[in-house]
């Protein structure tokens, strides 16, 4: 079918090509420092572009839910488009009812990696706790399909935890995310522990990352962490993590110049604190990150009344010696650990989850830098992409459980009720690596 004869507009053609390439994540070819679509993906795009495209469909890419400060009564909805959408809107309704409410969305132009996208953000407020909703995004007279949304009921819940997903080929990430979602259809939200992508400026990697969680990120909210790889430009030099900061509209932290870098939120009986551990990377652009974040951390925790307190942070609190390389590096406490662990002790943090080292390790509970049941439980969450470090790290004296070697990717679940906080780790096959529980009666 001839495109010109069927009056396929430039807008629709660009949208079609973009959608096809986004959907072709399984045939993306990624090599660090090199960006290219495979010949198969390009040929597929050319072939499909010659077929009929239904008129009136939404120019909406990566429709997503983002965690808010209080998920019982609010939710952030985001999406992107190839062209401006000045009348961007989110319509929503209680599931099973016809009455519609609406929330106006932003229309922000964002250019990065020689590519321009339009980012749309809408806030849904005054929702009812424990309610099921449906929402759709729109512009003018066009509307997307309906997506599900469920608010926090304030009781027991399950969440998915994904370690670093950076990849040279995001098919492993996609397969793991799909498997975890299917195995845990009751998950209320999902966490990605930083280093979502290998290169923070490469827009094709962001497309592949979003494709990997399509069907999940539009139905349950994302909790993202900023990792060091989000700060890399195409020349592998450090820059401000512009793409990350624009792609995720996160709960406010009271510091507008550092918005979307660190934040906290409540879900069920848990208060979550998401830290920014990129002190070295951010220092040349915004010095004093630790001091500002420490002030915020203390103020934040003095205001919460939640029973459980969980910290999410990208870089780890421990140092590992190398297993096979010649080096003077010894196992111990990292600078990040020296900064934060005394604060975690002081403010009675229950669990600290970290990433960055691409290995799963459950440690002793630690207090004052030593094993002690009084302190938080520390878990290094593993790896969710295909960038792995086989036989790189030696054992640490504080390790209690180590994933089978050589490691593959893994994911975790977090389940919380009034008395028990339970963490489990699984291989892509569904085989359990580890499980641990913390009980609390107060």
Q: What is the total tally of β strands?
A: 27
Q: How much is the radius of gyration in Å?
A: 22 Å
**What form results from the Cα inertia axes?**
globular
Whole-number mean pLDDT: 89
Largest sheet: 8 strands, mixed
* Uncertain stretches of 5 or more adjacent residues: 1-56
- Secondary-structure-based class equals alpha+beta
Distance between the termini: 69 Å
How many helices does DSSP assign? 8
Beta fraction of the residues? 25-35%
**Fraction of residues in helices?**
10-25%
What features would you describe in this structure?
- It is a single chain.
- The protein is of the alpha+beta class and 442 residues long.
- It contains eight helices and 27 strands.
- The strands form six sheets. Strands 15, 16, 17, 20, 21, 22, 23 and 24 form an eight-stranded mixed beta sheet that branches. Strands 14-13-12-25-26-27 form a six-stranded mixed beta sheet, with helices on one face.
- The radius of gyration is 22 Å and the shape is globular.
- The protein starts with 9 loop residues before the first helix and ends with a strand.
- 44% of the residues are buried.
């Amino acid at each position: 079918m001839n495109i010109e004869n069927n009056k396929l507009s430039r807008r629709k053609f660009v949208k079609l090509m973009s959608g096809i390439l986004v959907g072709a994540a399984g045939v993306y070819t990624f090599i660090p420092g090199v960006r290219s679509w495979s010949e198969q993906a390009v040929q597929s795009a050319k072939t499909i572009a010659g077929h009929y495209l239904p008129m009136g469909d939404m120019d909406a890419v990566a429709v997503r839910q983002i965690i808010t400060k209080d998920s019982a009564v609010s939710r952030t909805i985001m999406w992107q488009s190839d062209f401006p959408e000045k009348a961007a809107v989110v319509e929503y309704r209680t599931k099973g009812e016809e009455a519609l409410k609406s929330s106006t969305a932003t229309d922000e132009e964002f250019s990065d990696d020689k590519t321009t996208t339009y980012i749309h953000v809408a806030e849904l407020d005054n929702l009812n706790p424990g309610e099921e909703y449906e929402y759709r995004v729109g512009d003018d007279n066009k509307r997307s399909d309906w997506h599900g949304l469920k608010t926090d009921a304030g009781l027991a819940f399950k969440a998915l935890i994904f370690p670093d997903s950076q990849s040279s080929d995001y098919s492993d990430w996609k397969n793991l995310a799909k498997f975890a979602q299917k195995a845990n259809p009751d998950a209320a939200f999902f966490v990605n522990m930083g280093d979502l992508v290998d290169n923070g400026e490469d827009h094709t990697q962001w497309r592949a990352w979003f494709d990997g969680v399509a069907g999940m990120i539009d139905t349950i909210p994302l909790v993202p962490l900023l990792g060091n790889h989000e700060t890399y430009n195409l020349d592998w030099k450090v820059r401000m993590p512009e793409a990350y900061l624009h792609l995720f509209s996160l709960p406010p932290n009271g510091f507008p110049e550092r918005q979307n870098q660190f934040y906290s939120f409540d879900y069920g009986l848990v208060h979550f604190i998401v830290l920014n551990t990129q002190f070295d990377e951010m220092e040349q652009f915004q010095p004093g990150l630790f001091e500002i974040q420490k002030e915020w951390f203390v103020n934040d925790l003095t205001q919460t009344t939640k029973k459980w307190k969980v910290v999410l942070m990208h870089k780890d609190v421990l140092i590992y010696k190398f297993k096979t390389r010649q080096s003077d590096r010894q196992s111990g406490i990292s600078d990040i650990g020296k900064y934060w662990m005394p604060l975690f002790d002081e403010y009675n943090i229950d669990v600290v989850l970290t990433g960055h080292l691409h290995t799963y390790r459950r440690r002793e509970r630690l207090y004052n830098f030593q094993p002690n049941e009084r302190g938080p439980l520390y878990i290094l969450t593993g790896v969710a992409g295909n960038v792995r470090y086989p036989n790189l790290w030696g054992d640490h004296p504080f390790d209690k459980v180590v994933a089978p070697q050589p490691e593959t990717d893994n994911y975790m679940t977090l389940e919380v009720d009034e008395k028990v906080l339970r963490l489990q780790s699984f291989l892509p096959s569904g085989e359990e690596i580890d499980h641990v529980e913390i009980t609390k009666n107060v």
